[in-house]
Amino acid sequence: MAQQRLIGSAIAMAILALCSPAAADFIPLAIPGVTGTAFHQGDNPDPGDGSISRMLDGSGLTVGDPGDSSTWTHDASWQNNWQGQGSFTGGDTPGAWLVIDLGSVHTDLAAVHIWNVREVADRGMKDIEIYYATASFPPSAWTLLGSYTIPRATGGGTPADAVISLGGVSSARYIGIDIATNHGSTFRVGAAEVQFAMVPEPGTLSVLALGSLVILRRRRACRRS
Q1: What is the tally of structural domains in the chain?
Q2: How high is the pLDDT of residue 2?
Q3: Residue 119's domain spans which residues?
């Protein structure tokens, strides 16, 4: 029931935003209130433009059809992403890391959706390792989920560059990302948006399908107006 209320609210916000550009958005079943810390604050301290918060709060993201992930797109504005600074060589990004706090322990994680840096694409994350834990310390309590390669973004207004399954995570509050390489930048690495989706409860998919139909009809009406 809680997830159905959450997705109903997301659908309502998507409908309201159809006839005007959205400043921020969340994918269906996204965990709200996610926060983060990193090896570098980005362009400004939280919650300023280019800070870690902008990578987690839906800034620059537009969800078109909640039932079609190809319409969940992110812009290329520097204000709406996070890029940590360092001295990098040959794509290696030593000392680059990110820790995300989901706000509470979750046993219902489905996937993490990652939109890479779009402002200057070679600054995007490339090779990463993802860890998880129910408590942030000590570090020995962290469990390695796996190693992944995040594709380079192809530009603004495009869908997620990677969707990584979290089905192997039985319980977690903290997600750690060790960033080993970027796509070639010598001084920045980061991402445009990172959102965590939960496993839908029974009945939620039918709510999503109905909401998608309403949004499609609303979109047609906006185009005619």
Answers
A1: 1
A2: 54
A3: 2-224
